[in-house]
User: What shape does this take?
Amino acid sequence: MALSDQTLYCRDCNQEFVFTVGEQEFYASHNLTNAPTRCPSCRAARKAQSSGGYSSGRSGGSREPRQMYTAICSNCGNEALVPFQPRGDKPVYCSDCYQPQKSGRSSDRRSRW
Assistant: This one.
């Protein structure tokens, strides 16, 4: 089926806009089945309004601050702030020590396969 440019009407401003063949191909390549309902300028305005947060259907985009917990780093002994409540049965690392530990684990994992 040959694609052709489509003239659509924006649901926000009621202005005509063209849904080009290139855009239609892009939508198809990303398995998007619905045509856009907003013109490019209204889409951009909506995106700018909701930027800076997750677009999970919430208005405003702000989220509660994450609760942080204090722990002692298992590697260097310094105080660490972590986003989970330490249970004591697993090591906890500060941000300086975490990355070397993480990269060390991944190389160990690869050598075992």
